[in-house]
């Protein structure tokens, strides 16, 4: 378990996937909007969220010892 909010590398990969999905969806809304690309971004974000929960991202931060 990481302390001090550092996080594990696998957790940062999950965060990166979520950010990429959010960015794809945001760009899609700015481009006309392009709905198929928006929903693709939403799917990527959702998959990243499920991945984050599967790798135990919520266990990376502990307030024990603070």
UniProtKB/TrEMBL annotation:
Domain of life: Bacteria
Keywords, sorted A to Z: Membrane, Transmembrane, Transmembrane helix
Transmembrane portions of the chain: 12-29, 35-58
Protein's UniProt name: Uncharacterized protein
């Amino acid at each position: 378990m990481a302390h001090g909010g550092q996080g594990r590398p696998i957790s940062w990969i999950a965060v990166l996937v979520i950010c990429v999905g959010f960015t794809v969806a945001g760009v899609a809304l700015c481009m006309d909007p392009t709905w198929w690309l928006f929903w693709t971004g939403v799917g990527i974000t959702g998959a990243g969220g499920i991945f984050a929960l599967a790798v135990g991202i919520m266990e990376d931060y502990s307030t024990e010892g603070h």
